[in-house]
Amino acid sequence: MAEHQHAHIEHPDMYDPESSKIGMWLFIFTELLLFGGLFIVYSVYRYLNADAFHLAAEELNTFIGAFNTVILLVSSMTIAMSTTALQKGHKKVAIALLVITFLIGIGFLVNKYIEWGVKFSHGIWPGSEQMLNEMSQGEILFFGLYFVMTGLHALHIIVGLIIMGFAMRGVANGKVNAKRPSLLDNCGLYWHLVDLIWIFLFPLFYLIH
Amino acid sequence: MSEDKHHHIVPYRLYVIVLVALLALTFASIGITSIELGEYTVAAALLFAVIKSVLVLTYFMHLKYDKPYIKLMVAFVFAIFVVVIVITFLDYLYRV
Amino acid sequence: MHTTNAVNGANYLTYQGKYKGLLGWIFSTDHKRIGLLYLYSIATMFATGVLLGLAMKFELLAPGKTIMDAQTYNATFTVHGVIMIFMVVVPGLPAVFGNLMMPIMIGAKDVAFPKLNLLSWWLYIAGVVLVLCALLFGSGTPDTGWTFYAPYSFKTGTNLLPAVFGAFVLGFSSILTGLNFLVTIHRLRCPGMKWTKLPLFVWTLYGTAWIQLLATPVVGITLVLVALERVFGVGVFDPALGGDPVLYQHLFWIYSHPAVYIMILPAMGAISEIIPTFSQKHIFGYKAIIASTLAIAFVGYLVWGHHMFTAGMSGTAQYYFSLLTFIVAIPSAIKVFNWISTMYKGSINIQTPFYWAVSFIFVFMVGGLSGLVLGALATDIYVHDTAFVVAHFHYIVFGGTGFAFFAAMHYWFPKIFGRMYDKAWANIGWLVFFIGFLALYSPMFYLGMMGMPRRYYDYLEEFHGGNILSTLGSWVLVTGFIIIVVNLVRSARKGPPAEMNPWHSKTLEWTVTSPPPVLNFEKEPVLGEKDGPYNYD
After folding, report:
1. Looking at chain B, which subunits does it touch, using at least 3 CB pairs closer than 8 Å as the criterion?
2. Domains of chain C by range and CATH?
3. Nearest to residue A76, comparing CAs of B60, B66, B49?
4. Which of A77, A200, C200, C450 would be a feasible disulfide site paired with C272, CB 3.0-4.6 Å?
5. Top-level class of domain A17-207
6. Do C258 and C233 contact (CB within 8 A), yes or no?
């Protein structure tokens, strides 16, 4: 809606990589605090229901969690490499690395789908009969938080994939290049944020039993 | 407000090294939490997570090459979050 | 308009972009137009909130049912709170005057991300519409109070979800504005505009933006949890499922207490611009004001628990929160001393903005000191949930932020519209408004001390006298408000053309034409060694 005849009057070209970078970091701060609120809830309820949390964590499949951790870390590396490739002017390498990252992101979601599917087939979902009748209050809280936190994280993966789609398009048509890399850089920062949050989610849900 | 100096290009090799370190830490944290450590399990798992996140922030997120004020902001945000958790626990730890 | 701009022969009000008419406004990325969009939308919401407040006061004119029953009264104070907090005072000064003036004050052409800025306004409107949906459709207007406390918020049968979601969207709008301002202040200051030469209004916006950024997401996720609780029964705050409702209060106030500072900091900033201008004197203790601004922002983030002294917190937490509450009063007091000292031996030019600023200091002091009564554990337990609390926060939020908003409005009006208002009517409006304000809220201190609880549509016969005075005050206040609005609206269209710098101020926005040109400056300003925002000597 903006790039038209008068665009130059209302939109002086204000491209400034430093501004974009700070802007992205500030946004990451709000995301950290968003998850931060959940981590507060988690830590309080864990403190109040330590035994139930241990018991409930047994239900989670450490292998799937670990597998997702590994592939997410790899994807973080590939997207970081993609920014290097772009700066070196290797456009095709940059795109290839983005595609790999994108596919890993999809893979993560598929695993998550399978993992949640297994829980659902065992009758475990927020407000389910099984949970309300057979579980202790601590376990209900654990699974409530498990679904909310991993769900919100998965939502962020999806948003990250969408941003990555735009970054790929930009790199492909040359609008994102070694001189104007901000979109790809910020896409990378966002993806690392998603990774960062998972680094804490994984031990807190899968390893503590 | 002078323009920034040339963008620092991080070599591929460094990213690979960081990834190897992150994977090693991941497996180490799985290993250590499978041992019965009692109350220290949580502490151990969190310690590994903190080391991993520092690696991600420093190298993957380029903080090592950023200006000091960005590092300062990031440190501040993490610090204030820790403070908020501690204050919240002033309530829960001392409830009668 | 009387002044023209050499670049394209138009100022930001008359400039013709790609779209004509209304579309040229609602799709404009010009920070000044966005500021005016916020002004009009916030003014509309404010008027709505005032009407609801007026209705509540009318209900309290006599004991028993006067015009509404208990349920309607509950809904009325809920909607009044949601509108006034989330749609008026939180965005208030930053979104209106921050957008209109901040980029000019730092010598920039626009904010760092103009399109994001427009998106913030659209999100604001979306949030407003969502909340209105909660009011008009579904199974009844929300009745939980603006705090959405658990477990009411998932037990009530009213249409709460859209209101909660609307508050979430409004929070997102607020975050994006804060983000934009932070980057703008970091990156777009003109040459020579060092951090130590930044006008104080900009400094307070900087502190505010940090709080917006770091506190708002916490309430965002809390509201999401409430929504999930209602829809899926996650159990996080439901005592029947093991949840702790007090934890909801913690999370809610982790945002909502800093939100008070989101409201008051830019208000203090606007006052810090007005006092030196009308004293024609350098601000006293420039660096002390900056330090106190940052101290308020930081310490204010860590005192949320003083809203929960009677909620069942541990004694340790209560001592801690009470202590820090007293500490946060210190930087606020420092600012008051600075303003007073600035006036001392200045050549004071008494104009409407100055009246507003001085009355701001008065009501802010009363509000702040009554806050200490609430921050002390023993006295808080006595007056908690009484009319005393209502009086306190209206003195701060309405008396503080509201008065500063009107001060800023009368201060920057000639710059914004290029026309001057009728000063006599503006002064009359202020006087009537001020008297109405005092009559409306002062009796509530007394009523609260005597034990009249808040949030009831009814009261005992013994509280009748104070309530009559309070209701009469609300009528006087609204009369004053109407005088002010009519005067400003008339003057914006027909007032005499304003000079470039009618108040002889030293900040950069007064060096451009009134109203400012589209890109603010014909040539990028450069600050010399001796230039500064308050160098009057």
Report:
1. A, C
2. 21-511 (1.20.210.10)
3. B60
4. C200
5. mainly alpha
6. no
